[in-house]
Structure to design on (258 residues):
């Protein structure tokens, strides 16, 4: 983890334009604010390109996608690509329906994502590897490093697979992260908010490997720290501690976990 990446984000408060799902908008906005960046949610096709052009990073998350939102995502993604603004694609539930699968195909034909981030079931689907999924959740098992590598190679991008173990692959490197807490799997939008923090970390001038690792490692440490509070009984009591922990110093989080 490179703590300077987090410090730079907090100094610059980059604006992250989100085209994300209805389930997680408020959680994502509050989590990103706590981390130290600035969220804006704008999904009308009429304004998507303008908003993306003024942002420092763009998050495309298809969790509750509609046909009009797909058009907006393509406009926002193209506008971001034109200005070299980083784009994170989260293909939420892509294996669940042909509408989602077609939408992601269209997005990947028209937009170059800086990072594709998803759970194992989502990334496996992108390279036609059979994997058990349930709605937006991944419930299968298999070689997660190989899947992440293949997504990175096939789409010539950085791929991040999340779960108990996170895997980051660029064309050259594979990095594994084991920070995190099982309670995150009980928080809807835990992956979606990570995509938002990741977009913020991609706005610095550091290497993509460092940016990606910093985002996933910090996020996991914040979860471990939040879960260690005595009053945490389950996800409901965990969430406020987690939002708070996202504002903390990376070094402090490392040392604070017992
Ligand atoms: N069993 C686990 N142990 C530790 N960390 C976990 C575990 N499961 C998930 N995580 C962490 O939770 C975060 C979200 O990952 P996950 O794979 O659950 O996302 P997702 O399926 O896209 O979630 P959502 O669709 O709800 O947004 C990541 O930081 C990941 O490391
Ligand atoms: C539960 C759910 N359904 C569509 S998006 C979403 C949020 C987690 O991905």
């Amino acid at each position: 983890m490179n703590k300077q990446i987090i410090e730079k984000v907090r100094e610059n408060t980059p604006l992250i334009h989100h085209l994300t799902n209805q389930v997680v908008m408020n959680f994502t906005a509050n989590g990103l604010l706590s981390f130290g960046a600035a969220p804006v949610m704008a999904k009308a096709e009429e304004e998507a390109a303008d908003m993306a052009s003024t942002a420092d990073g763009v998050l495309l998350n298809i969790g509750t996608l509609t046909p009009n939102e797909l058009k907006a995502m393509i406009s926002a993604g193209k506008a971001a690509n034109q200005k070299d603004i980083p784009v994170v694609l989260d293909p939420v539930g892509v294996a669940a329906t042909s509408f989602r699968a077609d939408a992601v195909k269209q997005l990947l034909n028209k937009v170059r994502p800086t990072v594709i981030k998803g759970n194992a079931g989502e990334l496996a689907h992108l390279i036609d590897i059979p994997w058990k999924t349930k709605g937006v959740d991944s419930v299968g098992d298999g070689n997660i490093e190989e899947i992440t590598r293949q997504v990175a190679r096939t789409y010539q991008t950085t791929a991040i697979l999340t779960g108990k173990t996170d895997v980051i692959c660029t064309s050259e490197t594979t990095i594994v992260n084991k920070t995190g807490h099982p309670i995150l799997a009980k928080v809807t939008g835990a992956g979606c908010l990570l995509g938002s923090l990741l977009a913020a970390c991609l706005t610095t001038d550091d290497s993509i490997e460092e940016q990606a690792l910093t985002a996933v490692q910090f996020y996991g440490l914040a979860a471990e720290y939040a879960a260690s509070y005595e009053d945490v009984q389950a996800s409901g009591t965990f969430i406020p501690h987690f939002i708070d922990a996202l504002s903390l110093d990376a070094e402090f989080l490392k040392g604070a976990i017992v």
In short: The first helix runs from residue 3 to 12. The chain has eleven helices and ten strands.
